[in-house]
Amino acid sequence: MNLMCNRCGRQEAAASTLAWRCPCGGPWHLQLQVPPPDSIPGQRGLWRWRRSLPGVPEAAIVSLGEGDTPLVPTRLDGRQFLMKCDFCNPTGSWKDRGWTLAVSHLKAMGISHLYEDSSGNAGASLAAYGGRAGMKVSVFVPADIPSPKRRQIAAYGGEVIPISGGRDAVAAACVEAARDGFYAGHAWNPWFHWGPCTLAWEIVEDLDGRIPDAVVMPVGQGGILLGLFHGFNALHGAGRISGLPRLVAAQAAACAPVVRGWLTQADQVPPVEVGPTLADAIRTPRPVRYGEILEALRSTNGTALAISEEEIATAHAMLARSGLLVEPTSAVAAAAALRYGREAQHGDETVVVILTGLGLKALADPPTA
């Protein structure tokens, strides 16, 4: 198993490399051969797919029972959607899928102190999994993150370091501090990005081997979108499905670099002014894997939609009244699905919406239009 940089072509052995990115500045990708997606009979949770995931010694696996989240049919504004409730993961976030794999690998590597920059969910999830593995976890966060997220990180034993400024400032401070530990940044970690592949496998399993017409998800760094893309590709390559579902990237209009880049087909991340938004978890002006995100959209005949604050608040209320209390960031995906569904050519499609975060994390800061 090797690490490879798509930017410069450099390769290094994954078993001996502790660099969190390539010396050229590009993100690592895992190069490995794994069997087609098959779950272990009689088991539940994400690790039932472990034969098709990057190898981790059995004794190093750090799990809280993540995965196998429900797919709930839900009617919004007269249209039927399938809500993949990933907020039902142990820490209330889809990030558990990535960290169970990444922390297990880092435990096997003997790492004892992890650093992460996060808007809240990734940090809380890492604090939970790192704490379970006996690691020290330091999480750098924007000074204005919702207080429940800050308290959740601390409750798991994580060290919370608030940083003034935007997400770039938070990341820079974290990388600098990580010189005495390991920078585990979820946007960069290639093991983390294998975790959400299991979302695709679960969706197809839940649909009895069929694929939906489209999958809509909120996009910040793009971890869910890329995981879905690779997961569906693995099934397609093995002949398990006949094609790929259309991927729909949803971003808050207040911070929508992927949407802007998609509309202009820009090779590099276009500059955006970051405004205030209810969707704090995807307030990401410069996605690390921007080029890969656009390639996934092109390959699936997908699209990217910018969602207004009013649309976010309306969708958030609709979901709550349907029994699904989610973060406003999840409501971005629901609002995008509503807009997508109103287009005539998509009226009868099967559309899956990924709901990424538990609404209890945002109750101290209720959304307003």
Please give a structural write-up.
There is one protein chain. With 369 residues, the chain is of the alpha/beta class. It folds into two domains: 71-93 and 196-362, Rossmann fold, CATH 3.40.50.1100; 95-189, 3-Layer(aba) Sandwich (Rossmann fold). Helices cover 32% and strands 18% of the residues. It has ten helices and 13 strands. The chain has helices spanning 95-108, 121-132, 147-155, 167-177, 197-206, 223-237, 257-264, 290-299, 309-321, 328-342, and strands at residues 2-5, 11-13, 28-31, 71-76, 79-85, 113-117, 136-142, 159-163, 182-183, 214-218, 246-252, 303-307, 351-355. A six-stranded mixed beta sheet has the order 4-5-13-10-11-12, sandwiched between helices. A four-stranded parallel beta sheet has the order 8-7-6-9, sandwiched between helices. Helix 2 links the parallel strand 6 (113-117) and strand 7 (136-142). Helix 1 (95-108) packs parallel to helix 2 (121-132), helix 2 (121-132) runs parallel beside helix 3 and helix 9 (309-321) packs across helix 10. The termini are far apart.
